[in-house]
Design a protein that fits this description.
Blueprint: H1 2-13, E1 17-24, H2 25-28, E2 39-45, E3 50-55, H3 63-82
Antiparallel strand pairs: 1-2, 2-3
């Protein structure tokens, strides 16, 4: 499955894309009720850049604001996990 998805994303972006992690909303949720999106993909392109791809399954009227919020939240979680004291 990841190989087919990587092939699709590579063709879509016209760059070599590798899926490094498949994250569900539970893995980035701050509490049990915080399930903002079903699946996020953390990918890396051929230049080493990290790409976050969200795969929603429902209609969202304010998509771009939610996308910015979710991407920012994922970056904060990523930074907290790499911080020596769990803080930014």
């Amino acid at each position: 499955m990841p190989r087919v998805l990587e092939g699709f994303l590579s063709e879509l972006f016209r760059k070599d894309v590798r899926v490094t992690a498949i994250l569900d909303a539970v893995s980035i949720a701050e509490n049990e009720d915080d399930k903002t999106n079903p699946v996020d993909l953390l990918c890396k392109n051929d230049r080493g850049e990290l790409i976050i791809i969200e795969l929603p399954y429902y209609q969202e009227t304010d998509y771009f604001h939610r996308m910015l919020f979710d991407a920012s939240k994922l970056v904060l979680v990523y930074l907290r996990k790499r911080s020596p004291h769990g803080e930014i």
